[in-house]
């Protein structure tokens, strides 16, 4: 009788353990970045944002994350491309650079920096529906033979030029000051980017720079 009792206990225990076993299935989306993407490519989904907790950390592109710059993380878009993100709730948009990987939550297609989220008016909501449009591939290939740049301002006061350069550095990766002496006074020219051709500079200016700066022109780099 005892043998039968212990056999019943064993079978019940085994059955309960079998029923409680649940296979582990990862809920984290995987990363499958594209090798290249065409200008005009679009995608719709949910956007979230990240900020102070990641400030100063290294991104997937090797850059240091700055929550006050217009950047974003994507699981699928190539690094260093520029995309226009439109908040479908209020139709506000901004252009960001993809420099990191994420978001690692199902249903979300892009993770925006604090500054980008602020411009889209989504800080309080946290997650909003967006449309992403690729506006420009990366043209920041710093080689010795690059010849064109985008001039966005010229000042006779160096401090004004320096302050403007610092302001624009929140939005663009490469902003610099180039001085020019006319024989009577010195002009401090604020410029954005260095490009292989005039066409590349013009495309970047139209698709990216124009969202922040209204008055600009393409010049040969001297």
Automatic annotation (TrEMBL):
Entries under InterPro entries matching the protein: RlpA, RlpA-like_DPBB, RlpA-like_sf, RplA, SPOR-like_dom, SPOR-like_sf
One Pfam family linked to the record: DPBB_1
Keyword Lyase: yes
EC number: 4.2.2.-
One example GO MF annotation: peptidoglycan binding
Key words, A-Z: Cell wall biogenesis/degradation, Lipoprotein, Lyase, Signal
Location of the SPOR domain: 142-221
Stored Gene3D superfamilies: RlpA-like domain, Sporulation related repeat
Signal peptide range in chain numbering: none
Gene Ontology annotations of biological process type: cell wall organization; peptidoglycan metabolic process
Function: Lytic transglycosylase with a strong preference for naked glycan strands that lack stem peptides.
UniProt-listed HAMAP family: RlpA (MF_02071)
Similarity-based family: Belongs to the RlpA family.
Designated name of the protein: Probable endolytic peptidoglycan transglycosylase RlpA
């Amino acid at each position: 009788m005892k043998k039968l009792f212990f056999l019943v206990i064993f079978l019940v225990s085994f059955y309960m353990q079998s029923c409680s076993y649940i296979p582990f299935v990862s809920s984290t989306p995987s990363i499958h970045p594209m090798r290249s993407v065409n200008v005009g490519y679009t995608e719709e989904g949910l956007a979230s944002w990240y900020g102070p907790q990641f400030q100063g950390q290294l991104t997937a592109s090797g850059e240091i994350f700055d929550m006050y710059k217009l950047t974003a993380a994507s699981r699928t878009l190539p690094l260093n491309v520029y995309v226009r993100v439109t908040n479908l709730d209020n139709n506000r948009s901004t252009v960001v650079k993809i420099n990191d990987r994420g978001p690692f939550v199902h249903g979300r297609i892009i993770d925006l920096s604090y500054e980008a989220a602020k411009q889209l008016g989504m800080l309080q909501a946290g997650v909003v529906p967006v449309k992403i449009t690729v506006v420009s591939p990366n043209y920041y290939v710093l080689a010795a033979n690059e010849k064109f740049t985008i001039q966005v301002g010229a000042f006779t006061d160096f401090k004004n030029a320096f302050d403007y350069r610092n302001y624009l550095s929140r939005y663009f990766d490469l902003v610099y000051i180039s001085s020019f002496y006319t024989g009577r006074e010195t002009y401090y020219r604020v410029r954005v980017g260095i490009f292989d051709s005039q066409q590349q500079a013009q495309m970047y200016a139209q698709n990216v720079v124009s969202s922040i700066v209204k008055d600009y022109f393409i010049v040969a780099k001297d």
